[in-house]
């Protein structure tokens, strides 16, 4: 990962954050429909979206955003 430019790292981290938010919104959409929550597959899908969404946002806040700003490792592009 140290050979990638900073812009690519920032794009990757932003996509990571947006995917976590999308999963949480998808879980809220399933939770809002009371008829869908009664079925076990939809409930499992809702719980899985909540867990993955929280994991991705926490990963972004703890590791990914700090790693993109880290300039300790030189890149392999000679820049």
Explain what you see.
This protein is an all-alpha fold and 79 residues long. It contains three helices and no strands. It has helices at residues 6-32, 34-37, 40-68. Helix 1 runs antiparallel to helix 3 (40-68). The longest helix is centred in the last third of the chain and has 29 residues, at 40-68. The protein is elongated. The protein starts with 5 loop residues before the first helix and ends in an 11-residue tail after the last helix. The mean pLDDT is 82.
Query: Which class best fits the helix and strand makeup?
Result: mainly alpha
* Intertermini distance: 15 Å
Rg (C-alpha, Å): 17 Å
**Assembly context of the chains:** single chain
Indicate the proportion of strand residues. Answer: under 5%
Outline the biggest β-sheet: none
Shape assignment: elongated
Stretches where pLDDT is under 50 for at least 5 consecutive residues are: none
Give me the count of strands.
Answer: 0
What is the averaged pLDDT score? 82
Number of helices: 3
Keyphrases for this structure?
single chain, 76% helix, 79 residues, 3 helices, 0% strand, mainly alpha
